[in-house]
Amino acid sequence: MTTILDLPVHPLAVHAPIILVALLVLFGLLYLFVPPLRQRVGWVVAVLLFAAPASAYGSIWSGEQLANYLSGGNAWSEAIEQHQDYGWWLLWTLVALIPVWGLFAGLDRGRRTALKRGGDAPKPSEDGDTVAVASDDPAAAGRKVVMFVVGIIALALLLLAAFLIFQSGHSGADMKWGGTVQ
Questions:
Q1: How many CB atoms lie within 10 A of CB 131?
Q2: Which residue in 10, 140, 152, 173 has the most C-beta neighbors within 10 A?
Q3: Does the predicted model carry a pTM greater than 0.90?
Q4: Inter-residue contact 17 to 153 (CB < 8 Å)
Q5: Residue 94, H or E segment
Q6: Which segments cross the bilayer (predicted)?
Q7: What is the pLDDT of residues 68-109, one digit of tens each?
Q8: Sign of the torsion formed by the C-alpha atoms of 90, 91, 96 and 99
Q9: In this predicted structure, what is the pLDDT of residue 123?
């Protein structure tokens, strides 16, 4: 079992995904629901998209070492198995979020680029009044629909990650402080 200053790594390592997943959910929600902030928080979300799964994997790895040490090589209890399952589900949810988020961010960048080109700007009519006409951006309507669908999927994955980090932490705390595992 890996230790730091004679303490098992797992109780130390579990704090990283708790913080990183919570920050990912917070900044992810800001990114999804507050478009003017997207350029400012986009880099934070990008870093967290990779740091959160890495920390979750570190917690799973150290947890398996601790469980093997505590069980003496015997089969794990049902509570430990459930706790590990929550960890793995969290990891795969975070990994699934990476391409979904990349697609959403790419579509948003395309939207912003089209706006800079003036693709969605209203055109002046012959009499001088401003009249909205069809967009110069042929992908605008389709992009909005795809962004909405991908945004819903990203939101679902963020909320699932928040639920799973809670369940994983609760099951671990219940084992330690609830008396399930000594």
A1: 10
A2: 10
A3: no
A4: no
A5: helix 78-117
A6: 12-34, 41-60, 86-107, 145-166
A7: 998 888 899 999 999 999 999 999 999 999 999 999 999 999
A8: positive
A9: 56
41: left (phi over 0), alpha (psi -120 to 50) or beta: alpha
- Asked if residue 169 lies in contact with residue 18, where contact means CB atoms within 8 angstroms, the answer is yes
Please provide the size of the chain in residues.
182
Tell me if residue 123 falls in helix, strand or coil. Answer: strand
CB under 8 Å to 132, separation ≥6 — which residues?
122, 123
**Helix (H), strand (E) at residue 130:** strand 130-131
* Beta-bridge partner residues of 8: 3
Give the three-state DSSP class for 7: strand
Q: How far apart are CA 171 and CA 167, in angstroms?
A: 6
The structure tokens listed for 107 are 């579509």
**CB atoms inside a 10 Å sphere around CB 109:** 13
SS3 (DSSP) at 138 = coil
Token pair of 82, please? 């459930």
